[in-house]
Amino acid sequence: MAIHLTKESKVLVQGMTGGEGMKHTRRMLAAGTNVVGGVNPRKAGQTVDFDDRAVPVFGSVADGVQATGADVTVVFVPPAHAKAAVMEAADAGIGLAVVITEGIPVHDSVAFTAYARQKGTRIIGPNCPGLITPGQSNAGIIPADITKPGRIGLVSKSGTLTYQLMYELRDIGFSTCVGIGGDPVVGTTHIDCLAAFQDDPDTDLVVLIGEIGGDAEERAAAYIREHVTKPVVAYIAGFTAPEGRTMGHAGAIVSGSSGTAQAKQDALEAVGVRVGGTPTETARHVLAVLEAGR
């Protein structure tokens, strides 16, 4: 099993005919993703050849859903058009929208995440690498060849750290890896993924990657205390970040004592989560927990 994305998922790519869309659609197909179409109103009716696969282009998400039964969309459209693209997907009944686009204005993200929630569409992102269920499907830009299927679940604010932990633990493998994005407003949270991994019988342990800014990790710690029985191992990025300065992600800003890496580590350790000082140490914690559970 997996969370949110399986080999049965039928994927549309909004912005497939652009440079990034083309590149990553080819990579998704190579990973086994069932990409059933792209969306571009100006190129409706055309097909795009990806090696041995011809993928049709539809004029709208609704047309793509009607023709293919698509239930996932990956959004590679420019920031100015992302709000309209996500709302179009929600109106078409898409169950999962993976918003790769970075630089989306916060007020647009607030609007489309609220709209999607009302319509029953889950948003991953924005400004995220997407998600991958190794050996089954890959929706986004996560490299598919750095790990294998296994029984670790991963949820991360950081794309780069997602890749690093996947590689560090490649010999163990992952059920699903979810990059939720590091913007101030995201559609899926650490807690959402913790709940899904808790309910997934093929996930034995969860790796949680956080970073400075906000209180998402503290809220995740409170959720773990009350609802998560599986072991959780964490890494918090940003211990050396200067106060009051955004570092990397738009949401990674510390104000006073709120949102510091130390506060997040303390909250997680207080509920029994092992927190690594580096990604490599975090991977060692995972191996130790799995070994102790055998």
UniProtKB/TrEMBL annotation:
What residues bind substrate, as annotated?
A: 163
Its Enzyme Commission number(s) read: 6.2.1.5
Alphabetic keyword roster: Ligase, Nucleotide-binding, Tricarboxylic acid cycle
* Molecular functions per Gene Ontology: succinate-CoA ligase (ADP-forming) activity
What EC class is this?
ligase
The UniProt catalytic activity note for this protein reads: succinate + ATP + CoA = succinyl-CoA + ADP + phosphate; GTP + succinate + CoA = succinyl-CoA + GDP + phosphate
Can you tell me which family this protein belongs to? Belongs to the succinate/malate CoA ligase alpha subunit family.
Q: Briefly, what is this protein's role?
A: Succinyl-CoA synthetase functions in the citric acid cycle (TCA), coupling the hydrolysis of succinyl-CoA to the synthesis of either ATP or GTP and thus represents the only step of substrate-level phosphorylation in the TCA. The alpha subunit of the enzyme binds the substrates coenzyme A and phosphate, while succinate binding and nucleotide specificity is provided by the beta subunit.
| PANTHER family recorded | SUCCINATE--COA LIGASE [ADP_GDP-FORMING] SUBUNIT ALPHA, MITOCHONDRIAL (PTHR11117:SF2), SUCCINYL-COA LIGASE SUBUNIT ALPHA (PTHR11117)
Q: Any idea what this protein is called?
A: Succinate--CoA ligase [ADP-forming] subunit alpha
Species of origin: Streptomyces chlorus
